[in-house]
C-alpha cells in the first residue's frame, strides 16, 4: 500500500497526488485551476469523453476528481453514454471521500448523483452575472471570501436543485442555485471561475456558442461579453485563485486518512 498524500516540501506542495479530470468538449478545460494544481505538484490526467465516449478510467488510482462543463444535459444518456459512466464514477469517488469539484455540467452531474433534479434554469445565463454568497457560505472554506455581489462568468441553460444534505452556498437573481457543498469534500459550482480572457475568447469563437448567442436575440452577445470582460476579470482572477487554493488544501486535510492499492 502507498500513502495517498505526502508533503513534498515545506512550501505546501504535494507529491504523488493524482487528479482525474472529466472533460466533455475540447474548449472546456481546467483554465486557471490548471497552473494552481501543477504548482502544488499534482499530476493531472484528462479523460476526454467527447473523443472517447466509452472510456472507463480506474477512479481508484486517483486522489481527487474534477468534472468540467459541456453542452449536454445530464439525462441525455442515449446520445452520450459516458454520462452514465461518469455518474457511477462520481459515486465511487464520493464513497472514497475524495475531494471533488464539479463545474457547470460537472456540478449538475454531482447533484444528480446525489439524487437531486437537474432542469432548465429559470434564466439562461451567458456572460457576466452577479453571484451572491448565502449566509451559509460565511464559514465555507472555499467561498467565505466572496463579497455580497460578485460578477462571475456563466454559460448554462440548465441548473441543479440543491441535493438533500448539501449546503447551499451561492445564488444569482436569475438562477437561485449557483453552488453547493456536500459533506466537507464535494463542491458543485454552476458558474465558471476557471476562465480567463483567453478562454472566454476561445468560447466565443466556438460555432455552437455563436449559434446559441444568436438565438438569444440580443439578450447577450459576443460584443457585450468582450466589453465586460476586461472590467470584471481582475476581480474574478483574485476570487478564483483564493477559491482554488482552498480546494487544493482539501487534499492536505486527508494526508493521514486514506490509502491506495500499490500498482
What report would you give on this structure?
30% of the residues lie in helices and 26% in strands. It is an alpha/beta fold and 263 residues long. It has one domain (2-260): Rossmann fold (3-Layer(aba) Sandwich). The strands form three sheets. It has a nine-stranded mixed sheet, with helices on both faces. Strands 1-13 form a two-stranded antiparallel sheet. Strands 2-3 form a two-stranded antiparallel sheet. The longest helix has 31 residues, at 222-252. The radius of gyration is 18 Å and the shape is globular.
What are its keywords?
9-stranded mixed β-sheet, disordered N terminus, 263 residues, alpha/beta, single chain, Rossmann fold, globular
Write the layout of secondary structure elements.
Elements: E1 2-3, E2 6-7, E3 14-15, E4 18-23, H1 33-39, E5 43-48, E6 64-67, H2 82-95, E7 100-103, H3 105-113, E8 118-133, E9 150-160, E10 167-171, E11 179-182, E12 186-189, H4 197-204, H5 207-215, H6 222-252, E13 259-260
Parallel strand pairs: 4-5, 4-6, 6-7, 7-12
Antiparallel strand pairs: 1-13, 2-3, 8-9, 8-10, 10-11, 11-12
